[in-house]
Fold:
Amino acid sequence: MKKAFLSFTFIFFIVCGFPQGGWQTFYEKSGGTETPRYDQTIAFCRELAKASAMVHYSSFGKSGRGRDLPLLIIDKDGFTDPAAARKKGRVVLLVEACIHAGESEGKDAGLMLVRDMVIGNAGETLHKTAGFGHGAPSSTFKNILDNVTLLFIPIFNVDGHERFGPYNRINQNGPKEMGWRVNAGNLNLNRDFLKAETPEMQAWLKLFNNWMPEFFIDSHTTDGADYQYVLTYLVEVFGDMDEGLTAWSANSFIPEMKEHLLKSGFPAFPYVNYRRWHDPKSGLISEVAPPMLSQGYTALRNRPGLLIETHMLKPYDQRVEATYECMKTTMEILAKEGKQLQKLELDADRLLVSGELLKKPFPLHFETSMKDSVMVDFLGFEYTSSKSDVSGGEWIKYSKTPSTFRSPYFAVAKPVVSVNLPLAYIIPVEWAEIISRLELHGTVIRRTSRDTVIRIQTYRFKNSKWQQVPYEGHHAVSNIEYDEITEDRLIPKGSAIVETNQQCGRIIPHFLEPKGNGSMLYWGYFDAVFEQKEYGENYVLEQLAADMLAADAGLRKEFESKKATDTVFAKSPQNILNWFYNKSPYVDNRKGIYPVARVFDRKTLEALEKK
Structure:
């Protein structure tokens, strides 16, 4: 019955023609110079869903301003349930566009791609009529649709998208108008994958955990130096992803993707920074992405992610066409190698559940070694450097003369901060927001059924400092130092038991370890534990200080040394008296102690769960 209905749908196209306005996208109608607004995008998505039983339009959540977050599900049999799609043996690809809403190539490329998949030869004719080069008849997608289910988010940052205007991207060559980088709360969604504080990201995580896509694409436009490449890319192949998935990405996916792009007229290069800003000759650097970023997050979830970065100075139509080709070839690769990728991901998940991470230090931060490099050819443009009369700084001026630079490429990442993982973390029940935020990542959490005293390990912080300028709405902790301590602690009823041997086991330590890359402590969610809550009156502390000095010669020596080396302290009666308060029995002995406990043995964990 389903096949008969699909045949009828295709006949409907032939007999009745296209909907009002035709099947050309807004981008195509503009001659490749404009991108549609939110309402126009949603209208086109709804028309695609009406036209084809293979397309389902829905919303996967709401933005801060109450706008629907649009989602297209493209499945040959019209499945909208992940279990049904996988029962057919399909791999799932999640593609998101406009997380930075001014970077709209992924939206326009994705709408054409979906149109070409479900409209077929009509899409090919329309695209060529509009003056563009690719065109994809339905036969091109037959094998893809047999093996791949596509989830497409045309606009992720929907509120930022509607802050629409011509002056939102100073470095960018088109479209004529575009959206804004951040959401309505002025937060960058591509810094929120781990802390997950925006409604948009919380909805995204629920979608991700429901489908667990085998592959992920995030489409962007880069700033930076000028070069010949229309498209650069990044996949996490530098050591933070599972070894099997890393090998598949590096040895199978990337070479085939690059070969296709080259044949399509779009040579590609890894997304890089420069050893000296704007100077590609100085050296090219690839870095491990933190889990606050999209492909950094999915890599730690054992799902490879492809970051597309088209170059902002290239004409908009070239950037969209390159993105189209990159998305299309990714689907072709998944159609061929999806079974192998699924097996590798299953193996990687099983490895996490087995507790393999507990056997060796877990890396939290990487740095790219400046001692390890290979020489590569980089397709750039000749440029000059001079001193600016305005700013006094270096003024780089790029020419239109192509040049191939022989540059060192640094891409060997080494762990610089690691931690021995516990069997489980225990989050006290009163830290409810931390618990609920962690659950958004698909974390399996059990609750304690009674008050229990157990032996735990945790941290006592020292020398803490905070950034003076806000970053993503927070004054993040800029210096995290601590001593490891062991204590008997009361774990109250209802506290969260978070074992590390689970599918999201690579995310948990980044979230809960203070030195995790983008941890909740880093963002300030545990700032209360650093605060002194009780103080003494000066007339009480004066006598207390005098008595303490009289009774303890060692304390007097420490006090005199402190005054001699800290002039600010020596001139502040209040700081001096508070120093004595913090040396007295009245001090808060819980100040600076991390509330999250670490448990390393099964017997202690079992004691928590006895009824």
